[in-house]
């Protein structure tokens, strides 16, 4: 677009048809290229230098444009844009250049450029560089799509999750070998009770050794006792607690207390009375059951 002139040139209307103009006509039709007003005169205005300024060329002179560069990834784009157009409008144009949707763009020029600001307000000058941050829809879809390895692992995990703990080979072997403990505590399905005031017993571990659980809430510890030893474990070091009903004996649960960062560190306990399963989890994981 043409730039606005620095000097004011007084001009008189140009008309192809010779007419006699009085003083009022000359005054009302006098114009300048700094202040072009609509006129019914098809010839526009004639300046002192002989230049014809029409309504169309006057409007063009009012719009200032600037040349700058838009940078996206490793690509540079030369852009010519109006100084009084907004960042939002620039984003629409950038979408046609880069393929990055307008809504997913962030324009960086002396910080984050807000949509409502004009390029003039941002102080964009000739040769300036505006950086685009954002992803195309294809990029988003490719990142979101799981790899074959991830799909295989997910399928394996799903299959494992569907198999009850008590039906897994490692646990089924233990249950079949040691059966139900002789001193087992009565269990009740579909009930939730607070922890007993005495250690929870009548259970065993994967080796068939008898296990008792003592909850030392005042010292924030779980004591796992066997015939050979008692391990005093800080509750905040326990990563997770999982449990499921034992198939065919739903009054009791098979419970895993995770002592390390991976599932391989789970300490498995068999024949936990069902009514205490939730209270054990809540006590260990921080939801104290103060009854």
What share of the residues does DSSP label as strand, in percent? Answer: 25-35%
Please compute the radius of gyration using only Cα atoms. Answer: 41 Å
Order of helices and strands: EHEEHEEHEHEHHHEEEEEEEH
- Share of helical residues: 25-40%
- Give me the side-by-side strand order of the main sheet: 5-4-7-6
Assembly type of the shown chains?
A: single chain
Tell me the number of helical segments per DSSP (H or I, 4 or more residues long). 8
Mean pLDDT: 80
- Principal-axes geometry comes out as elongated
Low-pLDDT residue intervals, each spanning 5 or more residues: 1-12, 25-43, 47-54, 56-61
Number of strands: 14
For the termini, the CA-CA separation is 82 Å
Name of the CATH superfamily of the largest domain: Pleckstrin-homology domain (PH domain)/Phosphotyrosine-binding domain (PTB)
Structural class assignment = alpha+beta
CATH architecture of the largest domain: Roll
Number of domains: 3
Keywords:
single chain; 291 residues; alpha+beta; Ubiquitin-like (UB roll); PH-domain like; four-stranded mixed β-sheet; four-stranded antiparallel β-sheet; 14 strands; 25% helix; elongated; disordered N terminus
